[in-house]
Design goal:
Blueprint (H helix, E strand, L loop, with lengths): L32 H24 L9 H24 L6 H13 L2 H13 L3 H28 L14
Helix pairs in contact: 1-3, 2-3, 2-5, 4-5
């Protein structure tokens, strides 16, 4: 089944127009050392921020895990901005998403910690708090990403690029 893409959709800066619809090779893709280094640097920074926040804002058993909630929500916001900026404002940049999206936000945020903390809350009889934390994390992440995307769209686009217009 072939899917067509409307012409007004932006093209991923990591993919050329000729790549769309072309079968993927069966061999391992080559890695761009510069982008790989950016993922590592971003991952180091995101991991460091996460570690510092969790270390300095420890949560006692049975309390709301504010540190994980805060870093995940902040990461969702940053990713919302990064996606729009990479596609619209700094169109053509091949380095923003690996550094900020994959690296920084990938290391800063973690749903696995949410799952572990919800499990711990439930196992220790804090069912209401566990459910509130899970649903609150999802709602806050979605809201933060939407706010980040809205702020990203408020930035002026790069020259020669049309903004992606989304219609309902």
């Amino acid at each position: 089944m072939t899917h067509s893409r409307p012409a007004e959709w932006p093209i991923d800066p990591d993919v050329t127009a000729e790549d769309i619809g072309r079968p993927r090779p069966h061999h391992r893709p080559s890695l761009d050392p510069a982008r790989l280094a950016l993922v590592m640097v971003g991952g180091f920074l995101g991991g460091l921020v996460r570690y510092e926040v969790v270390d300095h804002w420890a949560t006692s058993r049975g309390d709301f895990p504010w540190s994980t909630f805060a870093v995940n929500t902040a990461g969702a916001f940053v990713l919302g901005v990064v996606v729009i900026v990479a596609l619209d404002v700094l169109a053509g940049s091949r380095y923003l998403r690996p550094l900020m999206g994959t690296g920084l936000c990938g290391a800063l945020t973690t749903f696995s910690s949410v799952a572990v903390e919800v499990d711990q809350l439930l196992r220790h009889g804090h069912v209401g708090l566990g459910v509130t934390y899970l649903l609150g994390s999802l709602a806050a992440g979605l809201a933060a990403a939407a706010l980040g995307a809205t702020i990203g769209r408020a930035l002026p686009p790069s020259s020669g690029r049309r903004r992606l217009e989304v219609s309902s």
